[in-house]
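stage 2 :: seqdesign
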């Protein structure tokens, strides 16, 4: 093998090693809202397969709105359906602005806010279903672009 081929092979192995060390999510999906509106009857659903029940997981819900979003927060009900059919439903508030301005990451006219549950235990093997419901007094919340779910193994 010539030195040039050996060097290229070495760089290729290094590239593969670095790629495997990166932050790779077990699950990363988003749900886009038609006309940038989240009506009360629209329930984004995410199905996450879990195999490793010994690991801790970082579970992050990301909501993207426009800068025309008319409220300082949004209330959501998050339901989890466990592989055995057990259901858990809880309300959560996601703050979007305060007196100083946007709380999330702003890029142009888009603001991204995250509701995080670090080091969560998912104790059953199988599919977990996460269902989101907007729980505001408004029938339709406008200026909501999408909502996403990202599940990754926690750095332990």
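stage 2 :: out
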């Amino acid at each position: 093998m010539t030195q040039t081929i050996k060097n290229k092979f070495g760089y290729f192995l290094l590239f593969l090693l670095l790629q495997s060390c990166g932050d790779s999510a077990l699950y990363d999906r988003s749900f886009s809202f038609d006309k940038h509106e989240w009506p009360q009857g629209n329930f984004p659903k995410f199905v996450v397969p879990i195999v490793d029940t010994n690991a801790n997981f970082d579970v992050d819900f990301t909501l993207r709105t426009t800068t025309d979003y008319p409220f300082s927060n949004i209330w959501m009900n998050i339901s989890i359906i466990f592989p055995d059919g057990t259901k858990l439903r809880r309300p959560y508030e996601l703050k979007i602005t305060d007196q100083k301005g946007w709380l999330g990451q702003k890029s142009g006219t888009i603001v991204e806010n995250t509701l995080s549950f670090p080091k969560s235990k998912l104790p059953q093997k199988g599919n977990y279903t996460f269902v989101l419901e907007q729980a505001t007094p408004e029938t339709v919340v406008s200026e909501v672009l999408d909502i996403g779910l990202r599940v990754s193994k926690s750095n332990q």
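stage 3 :: structure notes
- The first helix runs from residue 3 to 21.
- The CA atoms of residues 73 and 95 lie 4 Å apart.
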